[in-house]
Every structure is written in C-alpha cells, then in structure tokens.
Design goal:
Blueprint: E1 2-15, E2 18-23, E3 26-32, H1 39-51, E4 55-56, E5 62-64, E6 72-77, H2 98-113, E7 118-121, E8 129-143
Parallel strand pairs: 3-6, 6-7
Antiparallel strand pairs: 1-2, 1-3, 1-8, 4-5
Helix pairs in contact: 1-2
Length: 146
C-alpha cells in the first residue's frame, strides 16, 4: 500500500461538480493499493496514520496527532501511486485489480471510521477533483510494506 499524506487546513473532493467528501483540519490521504496488499496491510496503514504526530503543539513541535487536534481524514483512492516508471509511459501492472482494490479501499475506510472522529472519502474509480489547503506544506510518502 502506497500512501501520500498531506497535512491540510481543509480539503474536499468532487465528482461531476458535486462535493462527495470534505474535511477541515486533518489529513488528506491518497491511497494506492497494490496486488500483494491484504486487509492486514490496510489495518497497519490506518494504525500508522492514526499514530502519526505531525501537528504542532503549543511549543511549535510536531507532537500532536490528528485526533489531538480534533481533525479528520479524507481518503482518496489513487492507483497512479502504483506506477512503475522504468519507461516513459507508466506501467500499472503492480496496481491491484479493481475488485481487490475496492475491497481493500472499503476495508481501509471501515477501519479508519473505528479510529478517527471524521472520515470522508472520494468515489472509487471516478474522475475526481481534489481541492486542498496544505498546511506547511507538510507531505509524507510511505509504503506500508517497507
């Protein structure tokens, strides 16, 4: 599972000019699901995100979690994170099949709803327009399998 996480002041996602997900302060999570990912992988990813402490405390140190600041998360499926760039044209052969990816995307969101106060999401497989007000900017990338 490949993740790009941005600390945001606010973020939203629209499909066909209709807002389908919106948060104020929190994390914008772009989620790429690969062939070898499992429900356990999704659970580990949610737990890692839940434990992150990247909001500033009263001393300006990145010491607070999204829960500490009463923030939310907005989860967007993004298979392009799985791109292999050995050629000029990206290959997506390591991206999970649509059926497998939907199952894990839904599981990721279900697990997240058990941990976070506010969880919003995009629409899997749709053409989405994502708006974000990056805070910092503060962006992390990680592969949960590493």
């Amino acid at each position: 599972m490949k993740i790009v996480l941005q600390r945001v002041n606010c973020a939203s996602v629209s499909v066909e000019d209709k807002t389908v997900g919106k948060i104020n302060k929190g994390y914008l999570v772009f989620l790429g699901i690969i062939n070898s990912d499992t429900k356990i992988t999704a659970e580990k990813a949610v737990d890692k995100i839940f434990r992150l402490r990247i909001f500033a405390d009263e001393c300006g140190k990145t010491n607070l979690s999204v829960s500490d600041v009463k923030g939310g998360i907005l989860v967007i499926s993004q298979f392009t994170l799985c791109a292999e760039l050995t050629q000029n044209r990206p290959s997506f052969s390591s991206a999970a099949s649509k059926e497998h990816a939907i199952e894990l995307y839904d599981h990721f969101i279900d697990v997240a709803r058990g941990k976070f106060k506010t969880v919003q999401s995009g629409q899997f497989g749709a053409h989405m327009v994502v708006y974000a007000s990056n805070d910092g900017p503060f962006t992390l990338t990680f592969d949960i399998n590493d």
